[in-house]
Amino acid sequence: MPAPVLQENVYGAETWYRELGYYITSRKEQYERACKFFDTAVEKAPKDKRALLGRSIARAKAVQYEGALADINRALEISEECLVSQAQKSLYTYLNCNFEDALVANLTCLPKRKKPDNFSMGVMHCHEAIENCIGARAGRPLRDHFKIIRKLAWKKAKEVNQPYVYKPRRKKKRKKKITEDGKHDALVPLHKRKRPGAVLSDPNLKIYDSLFSHQEAADDIPPGPPFPYRPLQEYTSNIENYMAAKYLESMYLDKIFLKDLKDNSAVGNPNESSSKKILQILKHGYKALSYKQELLRVRRPFYFIKFQEMTLLSPTLLARQMKEDAKVRLRVQADAKALLAKIELYIERKQTRVALEAAEKLKVMCEVKHKKFFPDRAEYLKKIYKLLARAHLDLKRLNPNGLAINQDRRIYNMLGYPIAAQVSKDSVLKEFKDVFIDWRKQIAIAEKRLLKARDAEELAWLYHDLSRYHAEIKQYELGRVYARKCIAEAKECDEVNWVINATLLIVRINMQQRNKTDAKQELQGAIQIASTMNNPTLSEYLNRTMEIVEDFHFEDASSKIHEKREKQIISVMMTAELKSEIGHIFRLMSVMPSSRRMSVMPGVPFAKSKKSSKGKSSIMPARSRDEVGTAKSMMTATSTKPAEPNGAMFLQLMQFHLD
User: Fold this and answer.
1) Of 9, 326, 482, 530, which sits most exposed with the smallest number of CB within 10 A?
2) For 503-516, how does the pLDDT look when each residue is reduced to its tens digit (9 = 90+)?
3) Architecture of domain 13-138
4) Domain spans of the chain?
5) d(Cα 320, Cα 324) in Å, to the nearest integer?
6) Cα separation of 292 and 119, whole Å?
7) Digit-coded pLDDT (tens) for 438-493
8) Does CATH number 2.40.30.30 belong to domain 405-551?
9) pTM passes above 0.85
């Protein structure tokens, strides 16, 4: 069926567009879509009062109060005595936060019409908003928040006196330092980072000012006169989410979700147009929620809410609230005790994976629950860290009743060389067998916690987990750095279990990098520490690990690894002559047999054959046995011929003739 032909000048088109806009507004509740039809209706009939009134309603529903007020003013120019338009104008004036003008408009029209009660309700709303802002129920905000007001006034006066400095609106995000391998540097907690204006503790290391030095004026606010009153809201670290929860109630979670979603990696995808649409929707939704929150804040200021919470609550309501808080506190403490008992039970049963999951739940509870409902969370956190150190250390054990090969499997698994192809029934190996863990997600969670961490026990736990996670994704340098930091924090809080766990992680990283010498040195230190712990099981485990490391033989490495290492050594040389000489030495070394050649990588033997049997399969068709036999005979025939003097062979031949 052919599509209908639309003509521009159709009789009654403005009425059709106007009624379609009313239908979409009232039935479909698609206000922005309805505004488009109302725009067309107003364009075709600029004097249509009903179209202007409908567009003002749709704009008000879409939180476009300025445009709604402009449409009502145009409708009143057409008919000034329309009480419906006047009632809508009073409402939109109130929604635009012009409470005095809205109160005057409602009081003017109230004698003309009392039913329906648009004007009487408007008077009540305006009175309430004005009383909330400047009435007795708002308290004394200038007195109670004097310190904050003085601080803001001091900063404003300083900005006025200083010359204008252009500041871009968009702040550039600090990028993480990226190394050559594409990995960022190790993170440091925020409270341990050096500030640019920090004072050095050692006076000999301090740089004193001279006559020619330039120093910016200090931003410190001078102390004011003694003032007996304190602000009602002192903590402002999470003030944004706190205010959003007060005004938007449950919708504040939507605001936080929209704010964090733009930084989510899932938003950016190869489909660029769809990503832009998603970002536009996020921006529009976040902007609408923020605008709505500001409108509600103007009607009920934040100082009014805090004054109501602090002073104007009745004794019965306060008693009820304290009773409810006590119930919540008892419930939270009971849940925490139950989780802590489960962790201890799982550790006694040697169920390490389940114990770690329960510890994560208790850690999240300590982070989420308010200090008012969970006053003992610091003690619970210390217990969690000690139990976690014990759980990780319990994995380093041997079974005296088992076979020797099964004991070695545990140690090989710890070193990152699992040798069991089938699903093992060993109590240690089966804990993390066939368990999917998103290591990068765990790294992101641990890094967020690390920035806020302060206690040495917590830092030791986070550094240990970050070292373990980076070792799993083969970022060994970062893993070693985090393990060293874990040892330092563990020594500070005198927690020997974390020292042993982090040392064994370094041993694993050294073995993965084929550095047997450093691995034995770290193991020797761990054995010395274990001898002071009166733990014969751990000492036996570490001694057996030392034996396995000494007898361990690495797999043959390909020549590409040695070539890469040689290039790195050449790039370190300072002058071009030295680089050419070292390159010439490496070329001479490549001619010598592998048994007489010096290794450029400790612990990595040279490949005995040029091509490994485990190489990638070729796309060329396989040859028959006869062809392979003829090829081998040709190779043996050509091997008797003298080699061509090219490369290092040519240099060696020239040196022989010169000598």
Assistant:
1) 9
2) 999 999 999 888 88
3) Alpha Horseshoe (1.25)
4) 13-138, 317-394, 405-551, 559-606+644-658
5) 6
6) 23
7) 888 899 999 999 988 888 999 999 999 999 999 989 899 999 999 999 999 999 99
8) no
9) no
